[in-house]
Specification:
The structure holds 2 protein chains of 2 kinds. Chain A is of the alpha+beta class. Helix content of chain A is 38%, strand content 23%. Chain B has helices at 2-31, 37-40, 44-63, 68-92, 126-129, and strands spanning 115-117, 123-125, 133-138. Classes of the chains: A alpha+beta, B mainly alpha. At the A-B interface, helix 1, strand 1, helix 3, strand 2 and helix 4 of A face helix 5 and strand 3 of B.
């Protein structure tokens, strides 16, 4: 979740490039509302409770939730014209991409 | 009578300090410091606090007299060293447990048309949102 807080601090820089930011969680709408309020987020958090989107992209991490359920692996995707053009899949789920690294990757892609 | 009594009390305090430092030193990683990448990615601050608590625990055991005082100091040391071990295990072993990255779809894959609700209840079609430029961040949820 800490990456959401980081993204929010740089959100105007992402928006300046015309890029939308959307988060996806396995939580309910009400739980996502709590996270939104806690970090005062301006971007959407989609509730993928059935993990349909997560599974369709191969991002499922089976049995990794604290209660033994399935959750998405932490992942950040850059999408252009409907297709994935770049992704960050961390090798350690504590360590997620930092907003400045993501901004750098985005600007590199938009220049190319 | 007051002299040995006060010395015993001060030794006793040292036995308490180690776990009293170690417990918040462990919990604060989860509640606070994991929010900032500089403390999160390598948990140096929490590890330092727990190392300090463990060192205090060692000093307390060495200064303690045989009997209940020593038992308490040993318990404090075990708690401190145990939490140091637990945080290290979490950060350097457990959190590397991820599925094979080859299972993730390749670049070039188009986003499916799936509609999900955001925190305000607003439905968003992912394929539609992806039609121009989009950053999609998956995270593991609130826990």
């Amino acid at each position: 979740m800490s990456e959401l807080h980081g993204l929010q601090t740089r959100i105007t820089e992402f928006e300046k490039t015309g890029t939308r930011v959307i988060a996806v969680s396995p939580d309910s709408v009400a739980e996502n509302k709590q996270v939104r309020d806690r970090f005062d987020l301006s971007f959407p958090i989609l509730s993928d409770e059935d993990l349909e989107l997560t599974k369709s992209l191969g991002l499922l991490h089976e049995g990794a939730s604290i209660d033994g359920g399935d959750v998405p692996r932490p992942a950040t995707l850059i999408i252009r014209d409907g297709a994935i053009v770049w992704k960050d899949l961390t090798d350690n789920w504590r360590v997620r991409i930092r907003a400045d690294e993501l901004l750098e990757a985005l600007n590199r892609i938009l220049r190319s | 009578m007051s002299e040995p009594g006060s010395a015993a009390r001060s030794r006793n305090h040292l036995a308490w300090i180690a776990p009293l430092v170690a417990i918040p030193g462990f919990l604060s990683y989860y509640t606070t410091f994991s929010m900032w990448p500089v403390f999160r990615d390598f948990p140096w601050l929490n590890l330092l606090i727990l190392l300090g608590a463990t060192a205090l625990g060692v000093v307390a055991v060495r200064r303690s007299r045989p009997g209940w005082g020593r038992a308490g100091s040993v318990a404090g040391l075990v708690v401190s060293a145990g939490l140091l071990g637990l945080l290290s295990f979490y950060c350097f072993v457990l959190s590397y447990d991820l599925p094979d990255p080859n299972r993730v779809v390749d670049d070039g894959t188009r986003l499916p048309s799936i509609t999900l609700a955001s925190w305000d209840g607003q439905p968003i079609d992912v394929a539609e949102a992806a039609s121009d430029k989009l950053i999609l961040v998956f995270y593991r949820g609130y826990w």
